[in-house]
Amino acid sequence: MKKSTLIIIFMSVVYNSSAQTIVYTDVGSKHVVIEEFTGIKCGNCPQGHAELESIISSNPAGMVHTISYNPTNSSYTDPGTTGGTDFRRQFTDAFYTASYCSPSSGSRYMPSAFINRRIQVNGDILQSRSEWAPYASTISAETAPLNIGLKSVYNSVSQNLTIDVEVYFTSTINSSTSVYILISEDSLTSTYQAGSSASTSNPYIYKHTFRENISNGQWGDPITSGTTQGSLYSNQYVFDLTTTIDQINIENAHVLAFVVDDASNSKEIYTGISVEANGGQESTGTPQATGLQEQIKDKKILHITDLLGRETEPTKNTPLFYIYDDGTVEKRIVIE
Questions:
Q1: DSSP codes joined into one string, 59-101
Q2: Is residue 304 part of a domain?
């Protein structure tokens, strides 16, 4: 079982016009999020893996973000007596139900994938590999109504992963939204993979394999602040890597964040971003002319006060105001 601490920050500004630190505020293109369904007993799945890598390499760096699911509700994913590695995760089962992934055809198959969870012309979210590249091209040509900034820091002493996510709305969205935070891992191996020549001496190598959900819910964490143009949402997650189902090699791990439209039946993804788990930081959108990093400075806390304005020490499960030397104020609640 995982153990996580959620820090909810409501940003307010005293002197500055913006308080974001990791997210760009200028409009940019949608990033592509491909959620692949794959299995160790799926003979065509190695071709799906190759198609994913082809899509990634044929697009601008950092534009396509992928994660591979091995749900438990498929016979393709159970290694059984093959001696192969078990990558199954029950969390992904909800995405691989016919009523959700294929509301029109009712079909499930592998390899298959969601492309930003958009219901395509056949009436389904789930698509075969021949459709992945053209649908990815369509989405990447569209303008995103929001930007996502993501930062991940690993503490080797505590083995905690601290993940900061910021969502800046470049346009007004009139429906509810939620944010997902997931961990994937590269360079995992198995001595068996159908459709490959994998063996003990020549193991099959997997990329983008889903490992853990950091969000607190199956369908992401609701964005509870405003979603009007210019609104900023910030969250910080602290995840204990000693509580994972399988040990994760932090040097091979990535963090993926994306925001979905809760009002759509498919929970379509507006845009997404991924970073290296050990020290990665990226943002969707267009960098400001001066460069985001030039605008960032180390903020210092001047005072911490309670709701009555009395100075206090940091306290869990209590709303507090953090007052910084740059004029910004954070209303922060550390829930544990």
A1: S-TTSEEEEEE--SSSGGG--TTS-------GGGGGGG-HHHH
A2: no
Phi-psi region of 303 (alpha: psi -120 to 50; beta: other; left: phi over 0): beta
> Does 274 map to a domain?
yes
* Range of the structural domain that residue 258 is part of: 4-296
- Pair 95, 71: CB distance under 8 Å: yes
CA distances from 21 to 136, 149, 216, 221, 278 (A): 29, 8, 24, 21, 19
Q: What is the pLDDT of residues 21-70, one digit of tens each?
A: 899 999 999 999 999 999 999 999 999 999 999 999 999 999 999 999 99
Query: Which one-letter amino acid corresponds to residue 117?
Result: R
Rounded distance, CA 106 to CA 126, Å? 10
Total count of domains within the chain? 1
The phi, psi pair for 257, rounded to 5°, reads -125, 140
The string of pLDDT tens digits covering residues 176-227 is 999 999 999 999 999 999 999 999 999 999 999 999 999 998 999 999 988 9
- Quote the CA–CA distance of 72 and 283 in Å, as a whole number: 33
Residue 31 DSSP label: P
pLDDT in tens, 286-299: 887 544 344 444 56
| Inside any domain, residue 253 | yes
| Rounded-to-integer distance, Cα 229 and Cα 63, Å | 23
pTM of the model: 0.82
